[in-house]
Design brief:
Blueprint: E1 2-7, E2 10-15, H1 18-31, E3 40-41, H2 43-50, H3 54-66, E4 70-73, E5 77-80, H4 85-109, H5 112-128, H6 134-150, H7 155-172, H8 180-198, H9 202-224
Antiparallel strand pairs: 1-2, 3-5, 4-5
Helix pairs in contact: 1-3, 4-6, 4-7, 4-8, 4-9, 5-6, 5-8, 6-7, 8-9
Length: 235
Amino acid sequence: MEENKDTLLGKFIKTLSYKEQAYDLIKDAILFNKFRIGAIYSQESICNELGISRTPVREALIELQKEGYITILRGRGIEVTPVTEEDAKDILEVRIFYEKNNAFLAAKRIKDEDIKLLKECIEKLESNLTTFDSQLLYRIDHQFHRLVAKATQNNWMYKETELILDNYLRFENKSVYNNSIDGQLVFKEHLAIFNAIKDKDSEKAKKMMEKHLVNSYYRTLKKIWNTEKEELEIR
């Protein structure tokens, strides 16, 4: 499958194998709750839905199981692996560790092109808040965080951030952008991060990123697990 399009990261042309197509589509269905936790999906039904043959789908499912997204039930199908509150805390701890340092480094190393892309992303997020399209808003939101990671000019930071963001999205997308108040709060937090990075204030960028992620976590705790705000130890 050939792709040639503009993205927030710029133009790219990429050819995906059938396995890669299957992997991306199944993972997307998991991240945005099209595959429900507790339901069992047969490999045959997934093949029919995607229009892709069994071998690449099977290979994609094996990879997704290794990454902890699904459990393959022999003779029955696949089941989405649930994310517990403890999992969420662990993922957040790793996310804060990486992303506050992403913001710090981005403020020191950011290039003009990176600032332009971040500004476009912020504007796109603001202009779509009233759509209440949570899937679209989460894609833009996480694109912002990927762009911050890209602005560090460190490929390893970018790769690790991508992995962390995907795992965080497994539970985060159930909580934010579902109402206008939270959406506006999240936008303002992103804007504060952007302004600090643009102004090359590395300490403030680091502080604003950590504040945003902790706030996001508390919003998630309250809405998914009905847990009151607690003291969170950030190492």
